[in-house]
Amino acid sequence: MIQTTHTREHTVLDPTMKDAADRFAQELHDCAESKGYREAVERIETDTEFSRLRRELGEAAGAYNAAQAAGTLNHDMVAQMQQLQQLVQFHEVNRDFRDAEALLKERFAACNEIISEQIGFDFARIAAPHRGGCGTC
């Protein structure tokens, strides 16, 4: 079973709810979408060609920003940035990652819909970390 960690030590679940949450988390961990996502993340992190392209893009972005700030940006730099951005964006590893992420998000949305229906409010909206604002937006 996967280990659960709690960021708020004062939050305590009764044993029945904790067991249900642990089972739910384990099911999410074991589902095909989650496995596919973890595999896609592994490929993003380990594919040498993709890593090289991302590094080149980062270096080109630094040069691009410096040239833009200095007023020396030229057409070749713009073309190089566009080419590298497209190579990274449309690389098979990145495309597979985005697809895996979208499938996992669909699974999470379906789970949220079921939970929200059972408890009578949008579970994910309440469970998500607060990002400021008035609390209703």
Concise structural overview:
The chain is mainly alpha-helical. Helices cover 74% and strands 0% of the residues.
What report would you give on this structure?
It is a single chain. 74% of the residues lie in helices and 0% in strands. With 137 residues, it is mainly α. The model has no long low-confidence stretch (mean pLDDT 90). The protein contains six helices and no strands. It has a single domain, classed as YheA-like fold (Up-down Bundle). Helix 2 packs antiparallel against helix 5 (92-119) and helix 3 (48-70) runs antiparallel to helix 4 (75-89).
Helical element count? 6
By DSSP, the count of extended strands is 0
User: Any idea what the radius of gyration is?
Assistant: 21 Å
Residue stretches low in confidence (pLDDT < 50, at least 5 long) are none
Topology as a string of helices (H) and strands (E): HHHHHH
Termini separation: 36 Å
Strand content: under 5%
Whole-number tally of structural domains = 1
Describe how the helices and strands are arranged.
Elements: H1 15-30, H2 32-46, H3 48-70, H4 75-89, H5 92-119, H6 123-127
Helix pairs in contact: 2-5, 3-4
Keyword list:
single chain, 137 residues, mainly alpha, YheA-like fold, elongated
